[in-house]
Amino acid sequence: MKIAFWSNVRGQAGVTTNMICVSALITIGGIGRTVLLENHYSAYGLSEMLLQGDKIESLREYGEYFNRYSIEYIMKRLYSGEDGEKLIHQASIPLLFSNMYYVPQSQIVNREVFEYEFHLVKEKLFEALETTSDYVFVDTEANRNLSTNIILEEADLVVVNLDQNPMHVKDYFDHYASLQEKTVFLVGNYRPEVSYNVQEICKEYSVERDRIVGLPYHFELEESVKNGTVLSFLNRSYFQPMDKENEYFIRQLKRACKMIRKKSVACRREKMRFSKENQIGEVFSIM
């Protein structure tokens, strides 16, 4: 199951944090194995949130993390014909008792080469990722570059991350309506007391209430993200919420996971039905 997380604005809706939280809860809850990757470069991405600083520095020092073992390494080897499932296990970092895998990026950044190689091996890459896990989560760039467009097209479900800025929400519904059929919404850093809340978004843009969830701002979550301890925080909070704020956050996160799982299954079934109908149509056209 391929699930893409995306936003029309950069750095406002908590895309990366939201994706980590959803994928971690699916793993911790025993729902399925997950693999996480990203198609963009930033100084504060998945690695900084999932791994503590000393771990990152250690891996950098030995060259294991950002050079040989990375999404770029996997793509080059896939193009050479190597086995995809084996590559995913070799070039990714196991987390949560090996029920979650993180596929890191290389420090050697060449945007054009990445886009070109991704386009060449996209089918093999997604096949290998889905063989390795039950859920493939991809953190995509706000800028609709080639690889982002491919991922959004190939994904079974697109999770659009909104904020509570009316202009940003309007921009999405004005310019990205093509994504609607396989889309659910998360409102990141959600503050229910703000006048422009989930209810207003649903009312203004006719969004079904079961397709949107607000993930509340949580100070402890923010701190754990900064320290690279977010998985420990989520694991602890899932089994024993510490206070009402924590309990509310986990409850909303569970709602988001349920929504995403339900919609992704429905979208995949529709995709398979459409593909089957096309195949039947091609057979009859030949006859």
- Considering the protein shown, what is the CATH homologous superfamily? P-loop containing nucleotide triphosphate hydrolases
What does the radius of gyration come to?
A: 19 Å
- Would you tell me the structural class of the helices and strands? alpha/beta
The overall number of domains is: 1
Query: What about the largest sheet?
Result: 8 strands, mixed
Record the strand order, biggest sheet: 3-4-2-5-1-6-7-8
The second-level CATH architecture is: 3-Layer(aba) Sandwich
Mean model confidence by pLDDT: 88
Element-level helix/strand string: EHEHHHHHEEHEHEHEHEHHH
Keywords:
56% helix; globular; alpha/beta; Rossmann fold
What is the element layout, followed by pairings?
Layout: E1 2-6, H1 15-28, E2 34-38, H2 46-50, H3 53-62, H4 64-68, H5 71-79, H6 84-90, E3 93-95, E4 100-102, H7 111-132, E5 135-139, H8 146-154, E6 157-162, H9 166-175, E7 183-190, H10 198-205, E8 212-216, H11 219-227, H12 230-239, H13 244-286
What does it look like?
The radius of gyration is 19 Å and the shape is globular. Helix 9 links the parallel strand 6 (157-162) and strand 7 (183-190). The chain has helices at residues 15-28, 46-50, 53-62, 64-68, 71-79, 84-90, 111-132, 146-154, 166-175, 198-205, 219-227, 230-239, 244-286; strands spanning 2-6, 34-38, 93-95, 100-102, 135-139, 157-162, 183-190, 212-216. The protein is built from 13 helices and eight strands. Helices cover 56% and strands 14% of the residues. Helix 6 packs across helix 7 (111-132). An eight-stranded mixed beta sheet has the order 3-4-2-5-1-6-7-8, with helices on both faces. With 287 residues, the chain is an alpha/beta fold. It has one domain (2-279): P-loop containing nucleotide triphosphate hydrolases (Rossmann fold), CATH 3.40.50.300.
